[in-house]
Amino acid sequence: MKFGKEYVSQMIPEWQQAYMDYACLKNILREIQTSQKRAERQGVVKHKLSGRRNFSGLTKRYSRTFSSRDLENHDILVHATTGDDGFERYETTILKVAEVGRESELVFFKTLDLEFDKVNGFYRSKVEELVKEAVVLNRQMDALIAFRYKLDQPSSSWSCSETVSVDINALDSKEQKGKTLAEEMGIKLEENVSNGGDSTKETVPEALSVLDRIRLNKNQENPLSTIRNVLKLSNKEDLKFTRENLKKIEERLKNVFIEFYRKLRHLKNYSFLNTLAISKIMKKYDKIASRNAAKLYMEMVDKSYLTSSDEINKLMLRVESIFVEHFASSNRSKGMNLLRPKVMKEKHRITFSTGFFVGCTVSLVIALGLFIHARNIMGAAGHKLYMETMFPLYSLFAFVVLHMIMYASNIYFWKRYRVNYPFIFEFKEGTELGYGHVLLLSFGLGTLALSAVLVNLDMEMDPNTNNYKTITELVPLFVVAVVIAISVCPFNIFYRSSRFFFLMVLFRCIAAPFYKVNLADFFLADQLTSQVQALRSLEFYICYYGWGDFKKRQSTCKSSDVYSTFYFIVAGIPYWSRFLQCARRLIEEKDLSQGFNALKYLLTIVAVCLRTAFSINRGNNWKIAAWVFSGLATFYGTYWDIVYDWGLLHRPSKSWLREKLLVPHKSVYYVAMVRTRKIDRTVYKP
């Protein structure tokens, strides 16, 4: 793989604009090379020594005279200046002015200096942010240590008026003597604490006084806390010194340490990649321009803050030491596995199993078609009743499998175009599913469902089992029961972390107004709006088996007023969930666009209900109303999705789409727009 592609593939997506623009610099070098080739054909001399550099208006720099010694020893000179913001700025001067490609060389070094200043400034600002985070983390760790000591030594054994002096090392046997965690991390904290002239001695009440200034912050929102916030009731609770609270605090702080360490690793990788990019581009410049400038420029880079700063390495070492001692029981292997989780690689058994189930699915589809043709099932008596009862039951699995395949394709393109979807959806690191895992689950479910269909038909047509109609009718229910049992299984099988995350987000969608809306919440709610027919199939399961119709294979659901009522409700649940999510975001974020988005879902709810009423009653009044609101919802929804969500005809854009596109092929966006509108239009067209 060429370095340019490898360089881009290793970028942190969130910082992509802050990296060195390697491609731009490489394009400038191509211009220099083209100019030189053109000059060689014309017989022009490549270089000419000069003691003065005449700058073009493009560089906006001043002229400067250099000594003959500088001219003899170096091709370039790099000097640093400090700006008003305290950041260093670097300027490169070319001592040997070329007759050909002169302007391109000036532009090259001007661009290189600007890019390096950008990288160096970004790196410094991020280091300062992490140092501040380390200070906060230090205070939280001190509180955890005091909490542990409080549990081990209950306050009843001493009073605050006592002046018992203990070594600060006694607060935790693994702490270094006379050092706070901030000092261990290489950070100095100014604390107004009197130690009586002894830096290693502190009274117990002073050491535990931090507990008086903290409380257990409940980050997990729940319906009760939302109601209390609306009623402006206090959610603060006194800190209770219990093992349960200690376990919660340790778990939260452990996750904070892991996230903090991940940021440190990203910043270290950022420094390495940009330094390597500068080295590569300077070697290319030396080769193309026949100069010896790379060594001098890299000496400047080595002295800059980007490479000379050692704060990140020190913080990483201290975080590793503290994490291993306090959260891994001094087991370094266990601690480092938590801090540096291994990247999930596509295992061969996943690929093999996916291919196996794909083959099974295709084979079962062919076998089903041959079975229906050989037994002449479509021409047999009772096939119409079979399609009215059994087909809606099995269609549920078709909707789910198709949706999972579409989601797997999303993951494939996210990975291909380097979308950090685990970070965006807040998946637990190392537990996110790849497209291979999702395809395995989808085709596994498809194989199970198709096998059930074949078993059901065979039992139906076989004279030996024809009398066991009750058992035959229970086959689809058995498959649904298996799927539900696997979904809620508490054992660590079948991707437990992903299953529980899905169930949690599903619950948050159902209780939409009581939870703060995250991206995963409204993403799943949007997906459910395309699964109205699947939800109605679930309703049919409850009606068909709950009311005992399966014993006689007859459906009285459509003649029931209760079923018809819930037929409306089920169709509107996904859109109502999105409406509530938009309403909450409108209230919290004061974003007027969320109100217009909520209006889109409200119109869709009305259109779906009217269309459902028309399909049941078939009256002219319902038909007109269904047409009007379906047309209005379609127009409004199409405009919103294409203009606001997809960015088509966006005003600041010079083209039809928005300026910044993740996928370089614009045709992908147009195809996705058409497919999305086709799917949505089938939901509420009359």
Automatic annotation (TrEMBL):
One of its GO terms (biological process) is phosphate ion transport. Residues 1-299 form the SPX domain. The chain crosses the membrane at residues 350-373, 393-414, 435-454, 474-493, 562-580, 601-618, 624-644. It is found in: Cell membrane. InterPro entries: EXS_C, PHO1_SPX, SPX_dom. The keyword Transmembrane helix applies. The keyword Transport applies. GO terms for cellular component: plasma membrane; trans-Golgi network. Residues 558-686 form the EXS domain. One of its GO terms (molecular function) is inositol hexakisphosphate binding. It is a multi-pass membrane protein. Keywords: Cell membrane, Membrane, Phosphate transport, Transmembrane, Transmembrane helix, Transport. Belongs to the SYG1 (TC 2.A.94) family. May transport inorganic phosphate (Pi). This is EXS C-terminal. It comes from Arabidopsis suecica.
